Amino acid sequence: MSDHSMESEADEPPQDPTDEPTLLERRRWPRVSDPREKSGEPSGPALEPLYFSTHGLAPSEQFGAWRAHMAPLVEVRLPDDKTQEDGFSVDQIAWNMGNLLIVQQRAPAHSYTRSLSMLRRSPIDHWCVELPRAGRAWTEVDRRVVESGPDLLAFRSLGYPYRGRITNSDSILLFMPYDQLAGHAGVLEAANNSIFSGNLAKLLFHYVTGVESNLNTLTAEELPRLVHTISDLIVACASLSVATVAPSKLPNMGMMERAHRYIHGNLGSDELTLEKICRSLGISRTRLYQLFSASGGVLNYIRKQRLLAAYADLSDATNTRPISEIAEAAGFDLAANFSRAFSHEFGVNPRDIRKAAAQQPSRSPIPPSGRYGGSFGDWLNVLGK
User: Fold this and answer.
1) For 94-136, how does the pLDDT look when each residue is reduced to its tens digit (9 = 90+)?
2) Residue 330: count of CB within 10 angstroms of its CB
3) Confidence of residue 209 (pLDDT cuts 50, 70, 90)
4) Nearest to residue 310, comparing CAs of 349, 358, 263?
């Protein structure tokens, strides 16, 4: 973004109202028409937040509600010196910007775990950036612990197991789908569970807090550029944080990036087989299995990505393809098998998703019911789709 400076006309004498040709000749920049003028209606706010709070519950019920709310992402536990009877006062507001989920969160001290077993049943492999305003957290990935807090932003991949603990906190959390930053996957994989600090991190923090203060007024036309800018800042911070990574580690990171690119580029192909993937990447099956072990295996990863793509198609009110064709594109020969797998993954029938999209074509594709009741977990599942 850049600002164009204009010469001040404050000191010039007022022009004769009839001298309009002179005014037109003096215009330095052509006037850009506003698309809202053509429609006659202003473009209203594009975002509808998702609220969660335990304030209205009895103290003994608060932590159980929080645990259920966060179950799709992490398992949460109370500190050793606390019980559920003590209460657990949480406020969380989520804003879905399409390829970016911004979460404002205030929560008491607790611990959290995203286990390998959770990864195997979860389609979520997003990137996450934590921007703390108050409180400190300690997160462990592969036996390496990092500490985050004000001016120390935490970055991690949800495609790997992790665990940690956090004090009473006030934070902004950013979630971005893997595909949004797939072109930089090698650098981001290398930066997993790292801390962003210094001037670039401060710039990211201040930019996000500036966006945060305007979330309830942003228009649909403004969202893509904001998401793009935040993405660029995250990549810049990650690149700086891995500047000292040993060169011997980079080939493995590059291999993961190539594997994801190949799979996502051929997701709709009948010929997306293990043999083809290995031949294209020039690696063995054993090496391929190792790359996707954290995702429950490469076949499990492909299946979940295809189901997410099917969800996106069914949620698109403009997509009129029969469900049977969408099922076939997802790798299912029988519609019954597709419906069963889809319902197991998302807790809702494919036909219900299409019906809901037809009734509310302008809304984000959030399931009307299901395992997580149209909650935070659903927003994470369909993020970017």
Assistant:
1) 999 988 999 999 999 999 999 888 876 776 889 999 999 999 9
2) 22
3) very high
4) 349
Give the whole-angstrom CA distance, residue 305 versus residue 223: 25
How far is residue 359 CA from its own chain's centroid? Answer: 25
Instruction: Read off the tokens for 286.
Output: 């054993």
**Cα 143 from Cα 173, distance rounded (Å):** 23
What is the rounded distance in angstroms from the CA atom of residue 86 to the CA atom of residue 78?
A: 10
Q: Report the predicted TM-score, pTM, of the whole model to 2 decimal places.
A: 0.65
Q: CB–CB of 88/63 below 8 Å?
A: yes
Mean pLDDT of 290-303: 79
Q: What is the pLDDT of residue 237?
A: 94
pLDDT at position 78: 97
**Superfamily name and number for 50-245:** Jelly Rolls (2.60.120.10)
Q: Provide CATH 1.10.10.60 ranges for the chain.
A: 248-382
CA angle 157, 228, 240 (to 5 degrees): 55
**What's the topology of domain 248-382?**
Arc Repressor Mutant, subunit A (1.10.10)
HSE on the CB side for 10, CA within 13 Å? 2
